Amino acid sequence: MHLDALIRALAPSEVAGGRTVTIADLAYDTRAVSSGALFFCVPGERVDGHDLAWEAIERGAVALVVERILHVDVPQLLVRSTRESMAVAADVFFGEPSRQLELAGVTGTNGKTTTAFLLRAILQAAGRQPGLVGTVEWQVGGERRHAPFTTPEAIDLQRLFRDMLDAGNRSAAVEASSHGAALRRLDRVRFDALVFTNLSQDHLDLHGSMEEYFAAKRRLFTGPAPPPAAVNVSDDWGRRLAADLEDLHRAPLVTFAFDREAEVRPERLEIRAAGSRFRAAGIHVETRLRGRFNVENALGAVAAGLLLDLEEDAIAEGIASVTGVPGRFEPIEEGQPFSVLVDYAHTPDSLANVLSAARDLGSGRVIVVFGAGGDRDRGKRPLMGKVAADLADVTIVTSDNPRSEEPLAIIQDVLQGTGLEVEIDPDRRSAIGRAVSIADEGDVVVIAGKGHEQGQDAGGVVTPFDDREVAREALRSRS
Questions:
Q1: Where does 221-371 show beta strands of DSSP type E?
Q2: What pLDDT shows up at residue 449?
Q3: Disulfide-capable partner of 190 in 98, 133, 241, 276 (CB 3.0 to 4.6 Å)?
Q4: Is the separation of the CB atoms in 189 and 157 below 8 Å?
Q5: What is the pLDDT of residue 207?
Q6: Residues 6 or more apart in contact with residue 34 via CB below 8 angstroms
Q7: Within a 13 Å sphere around the CA of 255, how many CA atoms are in the beta-carbon half?
Q8: Superfamily of domain 3-93
Q9: What residue spans define the domains of the chain?
């Protein structure tokens, strides 16, 4: 693509240098710069991309997008925000792929991954050849890819959509994170349906307050091209969002709820140990995903399916086909006479949902092992401690991903909410072993916080660690 085309798209306030170069790729990370790249100098928390411009040029960058003019001998496009411009340029450079893909998005604090898996299955049942962008993995054509981020940077995301089209995908289920919204990664992504699951305390290290957190979510629904919305009005923030959208009258809105008046709600609901069944919007739904919270996820998927104008049979078939989601209330079976569940729950609300659902699965105690992540929202730590103390019979507080923080300091924050009747073991492997060793017949052991993750981040070093495998090892040792 000629640089002139990107200049027209970005409308920079100044162009320094020539306009005749040809752009072969886009990059924001010097490690990804190839010959002919347009490099975006994005200011970051630790490193300013402007300081890396010379390295990018050495690696092959032929032009820059900047927020201040630099003393270099390549064309420069001066813009107000390089991050914002990155989304526009990526959309144009990769041929506006989200106009060609049917995109079903999910945003919210909890339930994004499970709802995205349900949506992908529904799209598959409808013959829409879907891809997937989410926390657990990315799926492009028939290929599964590692997902380093839930919502990748705009260049990576638009490239991913282009890869999907080239691989034969005609639709995709996409997790839309608040980071993706706040950091402008989702600008220029055109959703055909967008689900709002809920909002509870998380990510305040980025957003600062719940109002700002909500604003980041809200802007996904109220941008220049607002998407058809499926909103959970069982949630306080969801009711607020739905009211805002009704006032705007800019796109179709379908509400769903567990126990309130909504267009999609469960009727004749049966929640069983092996899953749930109900009718919603006239559709008979059966899901093998366990727990009350997964009924809510299924309702969101039904609402999105209606917005996408999918056949009722495809919606029902897709939901029924999902037998589990990696690291989401995932059972670990080694023939033991009690249940072991691994879940990604790392917020007060999600931990409460998981522990409440676990209570319905056994006749004995609920034993929980959990910690809190380092370098993240510290305010939720005592809240999670209180949830565990209130809803579990035995609580073992351990490390999650301490990152740059001291594990015992994080545990101390959690203990402010638990009281004294808890066990402490900073060694996560040992803590999981302890929970398994004390479990009796009919008990339910919940290992919360890391879910599908396969590493533990401590002191800048990521060590292989998978809660599911560690639990299996502990169960085999016990038996």
A1: 229-232, 253-256, 267-272, 275-280, 283-287, 330-331, 339-343, 366-370
A2: 96
A3: 98
A4: yes
A5: 62
A6: 24, 25, 27, 59, 60
A7: 21
A8: MurE/MurF, N-terminal domain (3.40.1390.10)
A9: 3-93, 97-321, 330-478
**In 3-state terms, what secondary structure has residue 255?**
strand
User: 3-class SS at 114?
Assistant: helix
> Which DSSP category does 150 fall into?
S
Kindly provide the residue ranges of all beta strands, DSSP E only, lying in 43-181, ordered along the sequence. Answer: 63-66, 76-78, 102-107, 130-133, 137-140, 143-146, 171-175
Q: Are 303 and 107 in contact (CB under 8 A)?
A: no
* Amino acid sitting at position 215: A
The pair of three-digit structure tokens given for residue 315, joined into one six-digit string? 């919606």
**Alpha-carbon dihedral of residues 452, 436, 445, 361, nearest 10 degrees?**
120
Within 10 angstroms of residue 320's Cβ, the number of other Cβ atoms is 18
Estimate to the nearest angstrom the gap between the alpha carbon of 356 and the chain centroid: 22
Residue 331 main-chain phi, psi, to 5 deg: -75, 140
**H/E segment holding residue 253:** strand 253-256
Q: φ, ψ for residue 138 (rounded to 5)?
A: -110, 140
Please give the CATH topology (third level) of the domain spanning 97-321.
UDP-N-acetylmuramoyl-L-alanine:D-glutamate ligase (3.40.1190)
- Which CATH code is given to the segment(s) 330-478? 3.90.190.20
Other C-beta atoms lying within 10 Å of the C-beta of residue 71: 6
Q: How confident is the model at residue 20 (pLDDT cuts 50, 70, 90)?
A: confident
pLDDT value at 398 more than 90: yes
Cα distances (Å, whole numbers) of residue 3 to 15, 20, 69: 11, 6, 17
Instruction: Please say if the pLDDT value at position 404 is more than 90.
Output: yes
pLDDT at 273 (0 to 100): 85
In angstroms, the CA 332 to CA 339 distance is: 7
- Token pair 């929202």 is found at 377
pLDDT at 72: 95
CB-based contact 453:462 (threshold 8 Å): no
pLDDT at 291: 92
Q: Residue 200, CB half-sphere, CA atoms under 13 Å: how many?
A: 20
Using pLDDT thresholds of 50, 70 and 90, give the confidence band for residue 203: low
